[in-house]
């Protein structure tokens, strides 16, 4: 289970019409109240009043303070930044009092400050009006001059946190959702988290989910929480409980209902899983025999085989092939050439078998490719142009047949070794975009000292490759490496660089196609 991700999507349903009430439970949501005032009484002699607002709610016929705003210095028309957070109970009458005071002393005792007026209403009135503008009154119910108060009804900005319980009993944050702004009915995006991260792979280990109301100042307000396990996530609905409120208020039920819309536990197959499941890596080599490589009989040619029996083409073939051949049981690899004139009529070909057997272009292992290459050299004439698309299309035809596979059985890899600039760039781009839909990857190794900027363009690491028709490649399948960067390095270094992305490309394709390893298809 350690490599398994749990894909989860959560919805917090709140509000009287959100389906958040179940049986005798009551709907409880947190609302945010903003306050501003106008034309307040001026109680100061040498300056204007320094007002602040205090909010009370009625509990058992007594006024209990909920909170205070900041003090607005020398301001008779304050817009307070501090907002009041109040739990809204649809089924209850919640009486509120907004009282304004002029701060005179550094004291928390209200009687130490001058009273500027008050306004009493229910939370239901504020919620139903969304914006309430009313005159302030004094204790004797007379108008507080021309003073007014405006209440703005705001909604929460909720987000969720998922915590797992460690072996020491401490809770550790695993995942935090995005913040949904100004809503009582948030719907969070689905997310995926590895099971090993969520619960150490133990589907019965406790998971705590906490809901907060986001504040810009970092003082996020706790709404409620619940505990569950992966095994219990099929319960769909969970009461969001604030323990402090549960202790203080007998009538408290919950702070909302969190609804789990879907929860799936899926096996996350790795490249090794596919290989162990029997997936074969079908390897094909494409070799550039264009005239720009030079006469293979001369030492300056990139195809000249030195006294040690090697050149950059052979080094590239051996470095990559010796790794890939281990993943093909029969080790029979097609080896193709392009850009040369062939006997007996000396027509140019951009897709020919280097063993000169078009019905059976296979070579036995990497050594067989190297041998066929060496034998081929004196029997062809280097020509041009440098066209990639025919060989890419050739391999794509076989990869297309593999689209019918019901399990991850075959994946095709084409190694192209070239010395120069592509002549058929538009056709090559189009061929690669089409091949990206297939179980296929392309490795390009540039030999010599040419400008390989076009090759970098085909390697879609920095931007998405597009066909000349405008169609985008559904995935990046090209890896380009210039051989000159590895001339003085061990051949293993070259192989590591060019093959680094292949495992990811293989797993990405099979996952997109929802294909399992062959030996697990019936599980």
From TrEMBL:
Entry keywords, A to Z: Repeat
A GO CC annotation given for this chain: plasma membrane
GO molecular function, one term: calcium-dependent phospholipid binding
Species: Salmo trutta (Brown trout)
Pfam families: C2 (PF00168), Copine (PF07002)
Family: Belongs to the copine family.
PROSITE patterns, per the entry: C2
Gene name as annotated: CPNE2
InterPro entries for the chain: C2_dom, C2_domain_sf, C2B_Copine, Copine, Copine_C, VWF_A, vWFA_dom_sf
Residue span, C2 domain: 11-136
Protein name: Copine II
GO biological process: cellular response to calcium ion
Signal peptide span: none
PANTHER family: COPINE (PTHR10857), COPINE-2 (PTHR10857:SF3)
